[in-house]
């Protein structure tokens, strides 16, 4: 029997991309799933995909809202427990790069961009996790954070998004160390380039996004040693693995890098590959 049968999973940012793919895989494995994002319309699509994967419609709860809104996230966690009676897995996946289009770079980019980035990619994760921990302790559950390879220490013209993901990695380690004493496992997956709505959501033209992903997918390009970029399902499978105690119990406080070898290219000490 599937480990997830009748278990309850909350996936933030599941109205699209990696979060949607994870919600569908959890649903397929028999979990009851809360799906959430700001767009009600996109959540409806996620729910339909979960049902098409085998879930009963009543086992998928849609709650639309902004994860930076404290009142909403209280409703999100409480609404999940009220509906399903428990919480076994929290996937902190909602996130975005907030790009400054004024032509500035580095620390010339205004502080409100920093504040908004940290609010979304770090503060919301702390707050949702705080609310979820008492429920996860009862079920001896798991938290999976979705970070990024940009958390590694290399330079970038728009620094606040990478800074937020480095902070998220530190949060994963800090939570893992304390929460394992309560029986809750915490890990993260750190994707490289994954073909999603991420670039368009950052406000860049969809044609630019297409060219960016096509270049990453070009086998002739040396950008990704594997020869292709990832798709949401690649990361969803790792999220499900890290949430599944029967498969990954021994993994605690780790970052699983999933990037087709891209980071090897950023190591100045490594030979060109
Ligand atoms: P998408 O843009 O496809 O999905 C992002 C999801 O987050 C959507 O469901 C979106 O929902 C939700 N979201 C964004 N902002 C908010 C908000 N303020 N409140 C609630 N939900 C929000 O991107 P990805 O699937 O690629 O991104 C998922 C995670 O993966 C992010 O944390 C991202 O940083 C990370 N990542 C992505 C990589 C990539 O190459 N794609 C690489 C490395 C990491 P809605 O629009 O409905 O609000």
UniProtKB/TrEMBL annotation:
Coiled-coil ranges per UniProt: none
The organism's place on the tree of life at top rank: Eukaryota
Pfam families with a match to the protein in the record: adh_short_C2
Xref: SUPFAM superfamilies: NAD(P)-binding Rossmann-fold domains
The residue ranges crossing the membrane are none
Instruction: Please report the name of this protein according to its UniProt entry.
Output: Dehydrogenase
**Species whose genome carries this gene:** Pristionchus mayeri
Top-level taxonomy: Eukaryota, Metazoa, Ecdysozoa, Nematoda, Chromadorea
């Amino acid at each position: 029997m599937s480990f997830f049968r009748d278990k309850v999973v909350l996936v933030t940012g599941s109205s699209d991309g990696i979060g949607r793919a994870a919600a569908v895989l959890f649903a397929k494995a028999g979990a009851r799933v809360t799906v959430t994002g700001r767009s009600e319309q996109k959540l409806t699509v996620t729910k339909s995909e979960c049902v098409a994967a085998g879930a009963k419609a009543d086992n998928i709860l849609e709650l639309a809202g902004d994860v930076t809104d404290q009142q909403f996230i209280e409703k999100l966690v409480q609404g999940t427990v009220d509906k399903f009676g428990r919480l076994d897995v929290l996937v902190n996946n909602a996130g975005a790069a907030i790009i400054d289009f004024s032509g500035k770079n580095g620390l010339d980019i205004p502080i409100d961009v920093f504040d908004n980035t940290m609010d979304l990619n770090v503060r919301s994760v702390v707050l949702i996790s705080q609310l979820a921990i008492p429920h996860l302790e009862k079920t001896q559950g798991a938290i999976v954070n979705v970070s990024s390879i940009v958390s590694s220490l290399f330079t970038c013209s728009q620094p606040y998004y990478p800074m937020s993901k480095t902070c998220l990695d530190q949060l994963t380690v800090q939570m893992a160390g304390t929460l394992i004493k309560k029986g809750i496992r915490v890990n993260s997956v750190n994707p490289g380039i994954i073909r999603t709505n991420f670039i368009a959501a950052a406000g860049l033209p969809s044609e630019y996004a297409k060219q960016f992903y096509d270049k990453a997918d070009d086998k002739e390009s040396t950008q990704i040693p594997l020869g292709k970029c990832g798709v949401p399902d690649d990361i969803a499978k790792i999220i499900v693995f890290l949430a599944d105690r029967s498969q990954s119990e021994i993994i605690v406080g780790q970052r699983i890098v999933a990037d087709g070898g891209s980071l090897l290219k950023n190591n100045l000490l490594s030979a060109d590959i």
